[in-house]
Amino acid sequence: MSHENRNTNHNVDEEDIIDKAIGKFGKWQFKLSFLLALVNIPCTFHIFVPTFHGREMEVWCARPPKFYNISTEVWIDKTQPHDFCTTNDTSKASIDALNNLVNVSRNMVVCNQWEFEQDGSTLISEFDLLCDRKSLLNMSEMFFLAGVAVGGVICGIISDKCGRKRTLLSCITLQSLIGCVIAFVPYFELYCALRLMLGFITVSVFFSGFVLSIELVGGHWRTVIGIWYLFPASISYCITSTTAWFLRDWRHLQLALSAPGLLFLTSYFFLPESPRWLLATGKTDQVMDVLKKAAKYNNRELPPNIDKQLLAPVDDAETTSLGVLDLFRTSEMRNKSFSLYIIWFSVYLVYFGLVLNLENIGGDIYINSVLTGLVEVPASIVSIPILIKKGRRWPLALSMIISGIACASIVPFKMFSSTHQWVITTFSMISKMCISSSISIMPVFTAELYPTTIRNIGVGSSNVAAGIALMLVPYLFELKTIEKTIPVGILVLCGIIGGLSVLFLPETGGKRLQETLIDKTAEPRRASRVSQAVFS
């Protein structure tokens, strides 16, 4: 079949049986898409809140009882010339001796108790995560990210087998309950264990809701809804920062951000199962129930004999043995999966690498965190018309490559100039804006590339690559001790290599979603070649 004919048969105006029954987008889809996007807010809460759990506070080695009347300024000045991890031995010194520095031992001893400024409570102040225990704070976040890496795949398998709605609501319940329990943990080890579980559940909520969102709509509305689903994340950054401003105790903050998630359980009464998942798994009776309600809400009449039409594409052989191995069953699926793993790894490494490497813009942590959320908005808004008009593949490839080039432009200024900080900041923001656009496009593109029967597994397995990238980011910047430009250089390579990897994938814009691994009505595809990928 010619390239021209394929585009004719599968353009953006083509409707599958679900679209013909309820329309590509209507009041029913709008209501549900709006609701599903909101589940992204508590997900971002749990991702972002450690910023405030472990925020820095003024700290000094604790004064012995006999020196409580000494001001903290004098105490620090007289006894801690280096840092708060060691202090002068004052076991035999008096107050007068300390004030006059007479008979005060110059021997340094290791500090094992600290005092903090009176500004709430953090993980650092409560569990003494200082000095030789400082690395434990990053380790707690590594536990969360490990849960993210594993949860995307396992819960994806569950979702593809048990359904989007059941998986989503179960995970939302667990997410809120575990989040609330964390607020009462007595031990740091238990905090880490629960954060591991929370990472597993949070990514499951995110991807189950995302896949359900795009399976409710058709045509170019998949693009709009896919971007819209990510949009509330920017709002949740602002909500988290504002709440943290008023609640300086990490336990109060954790509870305040976790408990409201239970409100989403009310969606059980009006959130449907994905009609495309029901159709792909042969549950035609349940499909009809969903379509009748949706058509009525959208003021549409169901097509005649739709029950018979729903039976046509179902083949038991096509909907069995759904698992991770199906992502690599054919050469086409292997090409898609491996290319997407490279892309997800690259996007997340560059995005979070830039976040950690941006120069300090001044001000306090709360204002800066709000700004971090707000700068995501333009990238998301601009992505929608570009994706509708230009497709997915080239916008994603170019946004990643431009991000890498912008990072490369930073290197000479870092090496040879210390007076052009504004140039470094400008290129950093250009790179961050482009990679933010990539992070909006990528989930939509990924979900459209995989058939319905393994869509959640596909998106979830891609998230493993993202999770590995996230766990490497803190260690990436340790390389600056060897050469300060190495971390940025790695971001450059990831941006460019990831962008080129996109060109090995087919365009999905305007194409019908593939329902099964052997979809007889889907557009036939030949084995991927570099020339086909670039010039098709």
Describe the structure.
- The chain has 536 residues and is mostly helical.
- The chain folds into two domains: 455 residues, MFS general substrate transporter like domains (Growth Hormone, Chain: A), CATH 1.20.1250.20; 58 residues, no CATH class.
- The protein is 64% helix and 2% strand.
- Strands 1-4 form a two-stranded antiparallel ribbon. Strands 2-3 form a two-stranded antiparallel ribbon.
- Helix 20 crosses helix 22 and helix 22 runs antiparallel to helix 23.
- The chain is globular and about 95 Å long.
Please report which band the strand proportion falls in: under 5%, 5-15%, 15-25%, 25-35%, 35-45% or over 45%: under 5%
- For the record, the count of structural domains works out to 2
- Named at the architecture level, the CATH assignment of the largest domain is Up-down Bundle
How many extended strands?
4
| Order of the strands making up the biggest sheet | 1-4
- Mean of the pLDDT scores? 79
Low-confidence stretches: 1-13, 358-363, 524-536
Distance between the termini: 14 Å
What is the string of SSEs from the N terminus onward?
HHHHHEHEHEEHHHHHHHHHHHHHHHHHH
CATH class of the largest domain, anyone?
Mainly Alpha
Helix content: 55-70%
CATH topology of the largest domain: Growth Hormone, Chain: A
| CATH H-level superfamily of the largest domain | MFS general substrate transporter like domains
Rg from alpha-carbon coordinates: 27 Å
Approximate shape: globular
